[in-house]
Amino acid sequence: MSAMRNAVSVSGVLLALLSPAYAFDGEPRPTVPIIPEHQAGKTDVSPLQALRNGARQYYSGDKAGALSSLQYAAENGEPRAAWKLGKMYETGDGVQEDDSKAFQYYSQVIRQHDVDRMDSPSVPYVSSAYVALGKFFMRGIDGVLPKNAQSAEKSFRYAAFNFGDSQAQYELGLMYQNHRNLDAVRWFNLAAIKGHIGAQARLGETLYEMAQSDRRRARGLMWMSIAQRQTHGGPDGWIDALHEAYFARASEDIRRQAKSLTDTWIRRNRPDLEAPISAQAATTAASE
Q1: CA distance 56 to 150
Q2: Residues 6 or more apart whose Cβ sits within 8 Å of residue 203
Q3: Distance (Å, whole) CA 136 – CA 64
Q4: pTM for the full predicted model
Q5: How far apart are CA 67 and CA 2, in angstroms?
Q6: For 161-179, how does the pLDDT look when each residue is reduced to its tens digit (9 = 90+)?
């Protein structure tokens, strides 16, 4: 039995929702083909070629053409096309935002992609689809999909365990934070060491709150500082705010320890982040 068959069998809820013969309310529905009418019967176009055509059209700005090509590729079993369609409908990228359609396409990636080799180029898309479904289960879809935290957790856990997906690990950490902090630390840490910046920030926050010594608080502030160093002035404003709040709470000794730990980590793991800071320090010193 393949990895994907095992994945679908982990949850009766997932199995029902991913079945092509059922709608989200569990009632039988006829299967409606998603292949564009004007491309029907084009047996001379392979799913891979349609995917490539769609990618070229998408990046050239022809998203209507890309949609048609990707639909053809997805209908003919190309999981990467189905994943891209899910992302487009989820974010309203070139199409009207539609969570229901996004859920269907992400489900198709999992339902149709029977992978035996874990080094398949499609594996990252399958993993990402599990994470996307988990998020939909967490928040629900109005009139279509009820919230189901248990199914969300199962989706995240499958992607985290079987694919080592850092986003899935982060989502699990968020689910466990504040009531199962040791589990939260475990998942945040796994994602943090892979470079997931949000996980680094939340790992630091959780460690700081759990700490019973200044040394451990400094360790927590270190992770928040590492995340803040990478996003300062960027779109993740919550990380700046989080770091600022805990920096204000910390004593001078904790701040000194955290700075030393942060500098050491940056030097060993992200030396590319040292240069801008050094240049800034040199500019400041020259102006004094």
Answers
A1: 39
A2: 173, 185, 188, 189, 192, 220, 223
A3: 26
A4: 0.78
A5: 30
A6: 999 999 999 999 999 999 9
